[in-house]
Amino acid sequence: MANRIVEDIEQTSMKKQVPDFEVGDSVEVATRIIEGDKERVQVFAGTVIARKGRGVNETFTVRRIVNNEGVERIFPVHSPFIAGISVRRSGQTRRAKLYYLRQRVGKAVRLTEKRREKVEAAPATEPVAAAAS
After folding, report:
1. Short-list 44, 22, 29, CA closest to 83
2. Spatial distance between the Cα atoms of 84 and 82, rounded to a whole number of angstroms
């Protein structure tokens, strides 16, 4: 009973549309930054190395390299300070957490791109050829 009440209260804080992204994807996270009375949007681009939690507590970790130094940042998915998340490319992974990328350097950090299946259009109906006479 109490769990249902908590879920109903959390629904008010959750975003209606969350972009579809997975671990291994290269994303750009646009965050709203408030400095004094000014507000600006700053983009943090990198690879998603982890997702955890659910509901209002769901978070994801993005890693990027800045000046040959790895920088990781944890973002709450439903935070009001996240202006948007856009997926640049999808990476193919075989595990849920990519913490092993912390020890990799250079080209070894790159993930292979996930192949997208082509959506075939409905086959065009061709007129039946006349029977050979």
Report:
1. 29
2. 6
